[in-house]
Structures are given as C-alpha cells and as structure tokens.
C-alpha cells in the first residue's frame, strides 16, 4: 500500500485555548468543550508565530474532522509529524498516549476509536520555561537555551559553581518554542505494515578496495489472522472474526539513487509472524560507489526499497530510505579521515531558525549554497536537530555534519531525567543515522560538571552502542588526545582541566586580544568569533525607532548585544549608529581574517579543523552571525569566504623595535600539488610608502599541506610600528591565482596574556 495515497491531511485551522494554571486536565472528561474562548490556531505552526507571542506553558488544541466510511479490513493511525515539546492526545474522549521531544514523528493506532462521521481530536501541548535554566528539566538544547536566542541578561548567583552564571550577561531564556509544528495525518493501512526501519551501511575493509554490507532492520506489525474479540460475551456474535493470513516476507532492494549503472541487490527475510516481529537483513554491495564531501569527490547515493509482500508479488507496504556508503574515522589527535583520505575541516555553527516551522527546503537551499560558496565542508548543527530536508540537502551537496545532541549548558541530571534523556536520544540518533552527511555525534554543548559526570557519561555509552560507525564526542568545548576523562572529582579539578583543552577560541572577544593569536594551537576549533551589528536596514526592522539611536541598551541587550564585551574590545561607543555598525562589522571581519589565517597555517602541526561561530541569526538579533536574520551577509561572510579558500596565500609576521620579520605561507587543502608558481609581495607603510618588493620563482606547493617560503627581516623607519604586506600568487603562465594582504604589528609576548581561566568565563 502506498502510504502517500492513503492518508488524509488533518492540518489546517484548528482551535486552541491557553491553560496557564493547568486546570483543564483536572476535570473528569477533558475532551469536552468548556466555556473558555477557543481561538483559531494554524497547524502546523509554533504558537509563538501564530499570535501567542509571549505565551509559555500549556496549550490545548481541538480539531473536529469527518470520516466517510471506516473500512473494517483496514487499520487507522493518527500521525504527528512533530510536536514541541510534551504532548498528550485524546480521540473521541479516549486517551491515546504521551510523547516527549520536539523533533520526531510519532503515531497512535485509532482503528477501534475512529467513527464514521464526526471525530473529535484533543491535543495538550506543554512547553515551559525552567525556573532554573542551569538545571533544565526538558531534553532540549539550542532551540530553547542559547545566547543567540531571545534572552534576559541577568546573573543567577544561586548557582556559583558555574562562573558564567554569576555574570550579569548570563543569558536567561525567555522563549521556549511550543506547538504542533509539523503536519498531522490520518493514515490508512492494511492489516500488516512496516515500521521502525533502519538502514546502516558499513564498509567491510579498506575504503575503495572492499565490499560494503547494508544492514537493514525493520519491524513488521502483522494483524492478519488475529481475532478481534467483542467487548463482552453478549456481543460475541458480532465479533469481527478473523482475517485471512497471507505469508509475509520483508524484501530489501538496494539500487543506485543518483548515478549509473543501475545495478540492484536483493535479499529476503524469513516469514513474518503474527503480532510484532523484528527483521534484520544484510545486503552485500561488492564494489560500492562511495559518498564523498564536495571537496573530495562525488556524492553517490543509494536507495533501499523495503517491501512487505507475499511470494506471489502482492505488496502490503513500502518504505524507501536514501543513504550513502562511506567511512568516517577520527584519529586520537582529532584528524578526520573520509574514506581513508585526510580532510581539514572548514565550517561554521548552524541553527536555521528558533521556530523550525518557518523553515522550508528553499531556506536550506539558500543557506547551503552560501556555505558552499564560502568553501565550507563541515557544519556543526548546534545542540538541536534541523528538519529532514536539511540533511537530505547535505547528502546531495556533500557537506559533513558535526551533529550535536539536544543539550546546552546545565540540566537536572537526576535519575528520572537521565532515563527520559536516554529515550529521547535513542530516537534522535535512529532518526538521523542513515544520513551519510552526519559525520560524528557530540553529546553535550558546554556541559557543567554535574552533567559531565552523570548525564554525559550515560549518553556517551548509549550513542556509541546505538551507532558504532561514527566518532562520538563527549563535550563540544574540550578536546584531548584520545578520550576525555570519565569524570572529575570536584569543580577545581574540572576548572583546571578546561583551559588547555578548549576548542572554543574566543581570544579577542571573551578573553585576550587579537595580538595573542600565535600563542594558541587548539586541536580543533568548535567555536570562534565576535559579535557584530547588522546593517541599518536590518536593524531597523526589529529595534524600535525610539530605541535605535540614541540606543536603549536594555532593548539591544534583549536582542543579544553584549555591551560590556564590546567596550572591553572596541572601546567607548561611537557617536553615530553608522560608526557603531561599521566598527563591529570591521572588527568581526578582521578577527576572522587574522585568527583563521593563523589557525590554517598551523594545519596538521596541531590544528585539524575550524568552525566559525556562527552562520545565521535564528531570530532578529545582534550576535555572532556572519549573515543576519534576513539573510543579508555581513562583512565577515565575505572574509570567511576569502580565508576559507582551499588554496590560501598568507603572511605571518611580527614587528619589533624598528624591524619587521615575516614569512610568506601557502596553505593547500586540495589533494593535488601545484608546480612552477610565482609568489610576489611588497611591504608598505600605512601611508602607502613602499619599503620592500620581492618575488619567489618556481614555487612548489605540496598537496594537503601548509608551508612557509622563507623568512624576511627588514629594518623600519623610526616611529613605524605597523606595516602592510600585499602579495600575489601566480600560475606558471603568469595568471593570478590568489592574492592577499596582512597587517603586521607587535604581537603579544608569551607571558602575561589573558586566558580563559583569567577571564573566569566558566563553562
């Protein structure tokens, strides 16, 4: 049965009523109408985008729908595409069940409850704010509690073991998305159907030299031949009786999805018994076509067609999964290998919108193209799950994903919460694990000590068991050779471990200065960046005119602007809005230029990848994005596009008393070398006076490497403390390949620089 042809969409205009005191479910029959005023509520949507902007708590939904004929030989299911966050449902006064989580589809069988004619569906949805955001009681991360969301900046001094929580800029959440945000359908199925289908490809040996095995798991729910007894003995004569019981098998066909030749591979399961039965099948692919990131090769995709059928060809259900065959490995030093090829990671952090009901494939296509144009090959999905369309697009375009689980900052890591978290995480991993773009799992973003020792420890083992084919990271901000410590005995030990193992590189924003850049060599950078103010046209769309200029800093801070950190790094605020915008955007662009080039010059010495923070505003905000909420790029986007170029000309240098010392560098992330290039450069004072010109002929650039091309030392005129180097890289025919410049100035000495520990920013 084609499920797409046997479903009725129930989405549309429903009714809803708020229940801030949670009174409605205390009545004996909650499905009946009451005297409250029901309002129109579109489904799918988040209620904050549909009129209840400020509301948090419980919302009741009501929908009356009609069914023409209820077919006795069929089964009926109510399927919810996703509900945010906790839902309970009733049909025609009968309780259906409970679901927790904001990301996945779920369903209830309603065969015995559905009526010909009018049916009344009631859904209770709860999405609340935690009283203490450092001990959150729901399994939800970046979509709820994050400093890039609507926040109230205020300390929570009752939680002193997290230094950042005592900071006056601590981001207290003020919005938790809630609602039935994906479609609701009534689905008609035969007496037997497929469910819980998983497709897990695995290479059996060396990538490119060995076959693959496609493991398929499917559950069959088979009611053929099952007698449906009447409610009591008096009604036995009206019992539905039995259905004929065909012998059912699961058939799996694997075939190319987007490439030729169209070879197909087939396997069958043993017969499916009555009731629920789990079927595990394996399909061998002798010479698999591999899936690659866009910078290494083609994105070969396969599809597995899973059918529930009889031997004579009658098909009762079909499910299709598109997947790729590839191998991802992470060495102890954080070097990533895709199908055996070493790959340096360049990318960003991403959360498309706080309200995912507002996002569609066209949004993702625009964002992904901007990422590809900026030479990104890895995207960190920050402490949440995007819509399925995003993962499909990354599969098609060849972008690797650093996939966080939905945990950000602190949680109530007691036994009950951990058990609930295990259930949510199991569904989370199973929903995404067939996507070849998902390269690794990260358990927790910036976890606290009590979560690290309890929640994270449990989930680390769970995810490694659920998916042994991918690397699993315990924590997004800590990196070490090999696994991180299992636990820390106390806060001082935890605090002492953090600074030398940080993957968050906030030097020049939360701590330190830009001139400290050469003193840091992280294994991997999961976050780095600065805040900037969007262009005036974008800013005026969400900052009221009377708060825009002169600025009402309380309004600006609600939209995320860190006024204290701005003054720390950029000095006093300027006199005009135009100057403030220019100051922040120019500083952000300079920050990315200097830090990114420094980190890329350290490629393979220690640094294995860099992910800027972050890509796009997920609400109208003033924060670290390089593209604003209205998808207008800032100066920093063009700079990232420049410094993420796989072939990068760069200059490392330092100015001392009346001397400048510098080195030309070429960083090559391509897996091919260059021969016979020419490198030219000149050194100028800031007023344009040329101090030196030089050229290096017959330059050889190694594949997948970073290298220096000599050291130059020049005397400087008295009083000159900064110089500009401008360079060009030409091919053997004299055609321009790349150009770049660098501002050279006195760098920090190694002693006395401010570190994360000095700044006491906490984690």
Structural account:
It is a single chain. By secondary structure, this protein is an alpha+beta fold. Helix 11 (577-601) packs parallel to helix 12 (635-643). Residues 229-234 and 236-241 have low confidence and may be disordered.
Question: What's the helix and strand layout?
Answer:
Blueprint: E1 7-9, E2 12-18, E3 39-43, E4 57-67, E5 75-80, E6 83-84, E7 86-91, E8 94-100, E9 106-109, E10 117-127, E11 151-153, E12 171-173, E13 179-180, E14 184-189, E15 192-203, E16 212-222, E17 249-256, E18 265-268, E19 275-285, E20 302-309, E21 315-323, E22 328-330, E23 336-338, E24 341-343, E25 345-350, H1 361-373, E26 378-381, H2 388-397, E27 400-404, H3 415-432, E28 438-444, H4 449-453, H5 455-466, E29 472-475, H6 491-497, H7 536-539, H8 545-548, H9 553-558, H10 563-570, H11 577-601, E30 609-612, H12 635-643, E31 647-656, E32 659-668, E33 674-685, E34 690-701, E35 705-708, E36 712-715, E37 723-730, E38 736-744, H13 756-759
Parallel strand pairs: 25-26, 25-30, 26-27, 27-28, 28-29
Antiparallel strand pairs: 1-14, 2-3, 2-4, 4-10, 5-9, 5-14, 6-13, 7-8, 7-10, 11-12, 15-16, 16-19, 17-18, 17-20, 20-21, 22-23, 23-24, 31-32, 32-35, 32-36, 33-34, 33-37, 37-38
């Amino acid at each position: 049965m084609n499920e797409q042809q046997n479903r009725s969409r129930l989405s549309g205009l429903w009714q809803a009523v708020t229940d801030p005191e949670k009174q409605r479910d205390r009545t004996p029959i909650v499905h009946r109408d009451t005297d409250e005023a029901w309002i129109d509520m579109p489904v799918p949507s988040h209620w904050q985008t549909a009129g209840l902007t400020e509301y948090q708590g419980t919302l009741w939904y009501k929908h009356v729908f009609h069914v023409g004929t209820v077919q006795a030989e069929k089964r009926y299911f109510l399927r919810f595409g996703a509900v945010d966050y906790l839902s309970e449902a009733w049909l025609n006064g009968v309780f259906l069940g409970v679901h927790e989580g904001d990301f996945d589809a779920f369903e209830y069988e309603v065969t015995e409850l559905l009526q010909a004619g009018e049916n009344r569906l009631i859904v209770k949805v709860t999405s609340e704010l935690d009283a203490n955001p450092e001990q959150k009681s729901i399994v939800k991360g970046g979509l709820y509690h994050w400093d890039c969301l609507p926040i109230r900046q205020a300390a929570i001094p009752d939680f002193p073991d997290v230094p950042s929580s005592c900071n006056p800029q601590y981001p207290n959440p003020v919005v938790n998305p809630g609602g039935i945000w994906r479609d609701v359908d009534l689905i008609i199925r035969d007496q037997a159907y497929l469910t819980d289908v998983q497709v897990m490809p695995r290479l059996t040996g060396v990538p490119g030299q060995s076959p693959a095995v496609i493991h398929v798991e499917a559950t069959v729910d088979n009611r053929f031949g099952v007698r449906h007894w009447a409610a009591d003995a008096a009604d036995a004569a009206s019992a539905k009786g039995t259905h004929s019981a065909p012998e059912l098998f699961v058939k799996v066909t694997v075939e190319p999805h987007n490439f030729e030749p169209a070879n197909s591979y087939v396997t069958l399961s043993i017969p499916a018994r009555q009731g629920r039965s789990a079927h595990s099948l394996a399909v061998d692919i002798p010479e698999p076509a591999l899936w690659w990131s866009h910078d290494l090769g083609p994105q070969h995709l396969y599809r597995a067609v899973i059918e529930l059928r009889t031997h004579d060809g009658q098909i009762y259900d079909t499910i299709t999964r598109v997947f790729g065959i590839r191998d991802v490995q992470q060495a102890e030093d954080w070097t990533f290998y895709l199908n055996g090829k070493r790959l340096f990671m360049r990318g960003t952090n991403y959360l498309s919108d706080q309200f995912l009901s507002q996002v569609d494939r066209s949004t993702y296509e625009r964002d992904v193209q901007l990422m590809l144009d900026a030479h990104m090959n890895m995207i960190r999905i920050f402490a949440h799950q995007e819509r399925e369309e995003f993962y499909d697009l990354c599969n098609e375009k060849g972008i690797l994903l650093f996939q966080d689980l939905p945990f950000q900052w602190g949680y109530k890591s007691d036994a009950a919460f951990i058990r609930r978290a295990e259930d949510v995480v199991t569904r989370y991993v199973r929903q995404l694990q067939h996507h070849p773009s998902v390269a690794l799992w990260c358990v927790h973003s910036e976890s606290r000590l009590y979560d690290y020792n309890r929640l994270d420890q449990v989930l680390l083992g769970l995810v490694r068991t659920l998916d042994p084919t991918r690397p699993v990271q315990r924590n997004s901000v800590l990196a070490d050779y090999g696994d991180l410590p299992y636990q820390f005995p106390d806060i001082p030990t935890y605090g002492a471990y953090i600074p030398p193992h940080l993957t968050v590189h906030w030097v020049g924003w939360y701590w330190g200065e830009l001139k400290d850049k050469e003193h840091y060599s992280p294994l991997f950078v999961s976050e780095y960046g600065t805040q900037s103010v969007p262009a005036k046209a974008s800013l005026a769309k969400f900052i009221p005119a009377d708060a825009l200029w002169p600025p009402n800093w309380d309004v600006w801070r609600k939209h995320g602007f860190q006024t204290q950190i701005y003054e720390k790094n950029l000095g006093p605020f300027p006199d005009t809005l135009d100057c403030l915008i220019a100051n922040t955007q120019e500083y952000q662009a300079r920050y990315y230029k200097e830090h990114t080039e420094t980190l890329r010059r350290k490629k393979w010495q220690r640094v294995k990848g860099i992910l800027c923070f972050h890509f796009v505003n997920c609400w109208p905000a003033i924060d670290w994005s390089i593209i604003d909420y209205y998808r207008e790029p800032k100066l920093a986007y063009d700079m990232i596009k420049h410094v993420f170029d796989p072939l990068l000309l760069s200059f490392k240098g330092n100015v001392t008393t009346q001397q400048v010392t510098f080195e030309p560098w070429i960083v090559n992330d391509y897996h091919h070398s260059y021969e016979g290039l020419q490198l030219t450069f000149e050194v100028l004072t800031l007023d344009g006076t040329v101090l030196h010109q030089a050229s290096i002929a017959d330059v050889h650039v190694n594949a997948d490497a970073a290298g220096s091309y000599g050291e130059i030392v020049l005397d400087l005129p008295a009083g000159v403390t900064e110089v500009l180097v401008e360079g060009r890289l030409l091919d053997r025919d004299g055609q321009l390949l790349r150009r770049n410049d660098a501002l050279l100035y006195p760098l920090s000495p190694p002693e006395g620089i401010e570190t994360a520990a000095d700044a006491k920013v906490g984690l």
